[in-house]
Amino acid sequence: MISKELLEILCCPETKADLVLDGNFLVSVDKETRRRYRIEDNIPIMLIEESEQLDMNTWKEIMIKHGKPA
b/e per residue, 19-45, with b = 16+ CB within 10 A? Predict the structure, then answer.
């Protein structure tokens, strides 16, 4: 599990946007890129080329779930 302290200092490497923890993923709050980074063995894989771009509906659902503007 990612600690709250680590989550507070991590950001999207592409846009520097904040991230939300959603299960085993970190999701960027940036509406344009909608990047999702996986977490393996409690280590976030923060490589842009390893990330996934979410479709708008999936991204919005995650943002709403975490109380972020969609």
Answer: bbbeeebbbbbbeebbbbbebeeeebe
CA distance linking residue 37 with residue 49, whole number of Å: 10
Rounded CA-CA distance 28/11 in Å is: 8
Helix, coil or strand: residue 60 = helix
Its domain, for residue 16, covers: 4-65
- Does residue 14 sit within a domain? yes
Using the predicted structure, report yes or no on whether residue 49 has a pLDDT greater than 90. yes
Domain count, the chain: 1
- The torsion angles phi and psi of 57, rounded to 5 degrees, stand at -65, -45
What's the whole-model pTM score? Answer: 0.94
